[in-house]
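During the no-cost extension, the postdoctoral fellow (Dr. R.K.) reprocessed legacy sequence entries with the updated structure-token encoder. One reprocessed record is reproduced below for audit purposes.
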Amino acid sequence: MEKDIFGKAIADYHAGNYSEDIKTYSSLEEEDTIPLPYLFRDYKKMPVVEQKALKLCKGTVLDIGCGAGSHSLYLQKNGLQVTALDHSKGAIETCIKRGITQTVCSDIYDFKDQKFDTLLMLMNGIGIVGKLQNIDALFTHLKTLLKPNGQLLLDSSDIIYMFEEDEDGGYWIPDNTKYYGEVDFVMEYKGEKSDSLPWLYIDYNTLQRAANANNLNCELVYEGEHYDYLAKLTLIKE
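Re-encoded structure tokens follow.
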């Protein structure tokens, strides 16, 4: 059974039991934290990339990897029919308590037989594929959830900046790395650690190639100041 570190932390914060943040350890850098208040931020405190994505949402929306539900809550309050999906039981229970009316506790691959106008994957939601080699399987599944004129909105980051640059402008990438955006994460909360979780950060050009290979148009909607971006994917009409 999964430990649901993320869900426990979210549930604690919402219940008023906030005493510490989630610690993260990755294969690329030393210890970092996920501040719990940030997961409950309102629209004004969201980064521009997320604000732009929310403004582009239309029709029925599936918020994939909804976490504490801040994006879903904003969309719902603005009249959109949104379904908040997360595999974390604690996250979904918190979403319900926050007033989100449609929630699903499920792995995205197990969620089927519904179609949406907008699929939303924010806070690098595409990272759930873990490894670049798995992206075709994800796109194949996501296409079954899209209406004919639907859209997939996602943000990610090109983490090439985390690697050492040489004099010629190239980067030192470890030989054992298939793709430099593949990272392994461990989360810790109140002394309990999660299992190692593979996570993907994907640069825009690689995303575009993968999308096109899966019969999806890929448009760069917004480029942030620190290697982050927002992309919109749509079905290529056959």
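The mean pLDDT is 92. The two ends are 42 Å apart (CA to CA). The remaining legacy entries will be reprocessed before the final report is submitted.
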